[in-house]
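Here is one chain, start to finish.
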Amino acid sequence: MAQLKTAAGSGRIKYVKRTWILYAMLLLPMLFFLIFRYIPMTNIVIAFKNYNLFQGVWESPWAGGKWFAQAFTSRDFGNALRNTLVLNFLDLIVGFPAPIILAILLNEMTFPGYKKFTQTVVYLPHFLSWIIISGIASQLFAPSDGVINVMLGKMGVGPIDFLTNDSLWVGTYVGLGVWKEMGWGTIIYLAAITGINPEIYEAAEVDGAGRWGKIWHVTLPGLRSTIVVLLIMNLGRILGIEFDRPYTLANFRVMQVADVISTMVYRVGIRSQQFSYTAAIGLFQSVVCVIFLLAANTLAKKFGERGLW
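Its structure:
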């Protein structure tokens, strides 16, 4: 037994000597995450203190759970939490299947030139910032002189307040998000489709499966593991929401449905300088996201999928 352990130890040493360059290459990204991701996490104690900018993080007096209690009883926080969940849930319901459907449609195209052109066109919106997209949206959906409302007016319809009506704003918000990211999301699914063995398609065709049959019985099962992994990652972000998208698309008329956690943190934490209060909100948001991620991963494993780990 001792000889086996010695042999295993010497084998590991030889392996490290052979591949030390790979470990050296990992050193830089590990240092990056340590310095810029993990060490700053110590400042999370701001959420439990009466943070004073001049006293610093560690000299500021402790406040216990005061800021969490204030957040949970705040009407603004409740509204922002509800809006975050609603918008992210709608994004998940509408936006998650969109790249899957688009990837399958692109895979079924028989003309390579048209397929490449279509891929290029649907990828491009991903590279536009939300500042640009909000400008495009204001030109398209403006009530008086927007392109869409001008066209509707010529047909005897409208004007429709896409950007000032609460429910229509939510639909516009979700639709613009799908348009922007749908093409980019197809990259992973197209890569997964190329990994499906062509012989399976041939066998399905021999068994009498048509185009829709091959999609249902071969393509979708081949994408299942990829779909599950990406779904878990999306569920892990169910309470996290980017700042620029709701901030640039919102206006004072729709703040009841457009004010989310990220915009509230900016408004209350940065502009009003309530750092401890917004740190508590951010900590709550992160903990809930981790819980959703762990729950989704556990559920996926119970259904026989591999999950994230």
